[in-house]
Every structure is written in structure tokens, then in C-alpha cells.
Amino acid sequence: MEKVVFGFFVLMSATLNFGFFIGDMGNPQLHNVYELYAAVVVNLIATVLKFGDRTQIGAVHLATSLVAVIQLVLAAGVHIWVTQASEAGLTVAHTSSVVSLSGGALLANMVSLILLVIETASYRRR
């Protein structure tokens, strides 16, 4: 059951991130901010779940998850700053920055998914 929960959160974090990332970078209406915030939360949960694994592949899982969390938190921080504190508001340049940061997190999530598939495929029942 532990592997199912772990796999669920790894896959959910990637799909939420992909859902936010996809679309024209200059059009803020195509990037749902709630999906970004959900991706941050689910990535944080996936990161916490990766702390217990003491294997080499577990360390790489944790590293990819930390990269994704950092980039998503930065993306959310930029979004909050430009919508709440900046006089310019959400411009095309700001939207591109937020989407680009989430794209880096998406790459880290994809690496984590590939590792999960490799780990699952190499698992042998005893």
C-alpha cells in the first residue's frame, strides 16, 4: 500500500504541474493559478514521502522532488509577488517567468516518474 500512495503522489504532482505548464506562455488565462498551488502542495507531500527511502534510487527521488518543490515554490512566489505587491501586475514577462519555473519543476517530475517506472520494472517478487 505504501508504494501505491507513493506512486499516486509522484504521478499526481507531475500531472498537476503539466496541467499548469501547458499553454501559451504569454497568456495568463491559460495557466490556472490554483493548479499551480495544488502542484506545490502535492509536490511537498511527495517529497515528505520520499524521506524514508534509504536506497540510492531513493536519494535521487528525493533530489528530483526537492528540485521540483523549490522551483514550484519560486513560481508561486513570483506569482504572488506580481499579483499582490507589484504595481505592474501580471504581465506577459511575469507569466513567462512563472511558467518557465514550473517547466523546470515538470522536468524534475518527469525524471522522478522515469525512476519510479524503472524501479517498479526491476522489482522482483521474493
Describe this structure in words.
The protein is mainly alpha-helical. It has one domain (2-122). It has four helices and no strands. It has helices at residues 2-21, 33-50, 56-84, 92-122. Helix 1 (2-21) packs antiparallel against helix 2, helix 1 (2-21) packs antiparallel against helix 4 (92-122) and helix 2 packs antiparallel against helix 3. The protein is elongated and about 60 Å long. The chain starts with a helix and ends with a helix. The mean pLDDT is 91.
Secondary structure: elements and pairs:
Elements: H1 2-21, H2 33-50, H3 56-84, H4 92-122
- Summing up helix and strand content along with how strands pair, one would put the structural category as mainly alpha
**Uncertain regions spanning at least 5 consecutive residues:** none
Mean pLDDT: 91
Counting DSSP H or I runs of 4 or more residues, the number of helices is 4
Strand content: under 5%
- Along the chain, the helix and strand elements come as HHHH
Helix share bin: over 70%
Q: How big is the Rg?
A: 16 Å
Shape: elongated
| Total DSSP E strands | 0
What is the straight-line distance between the termini?
Answer: 17 Å
Total number of domains: 1
Largest sheet: none
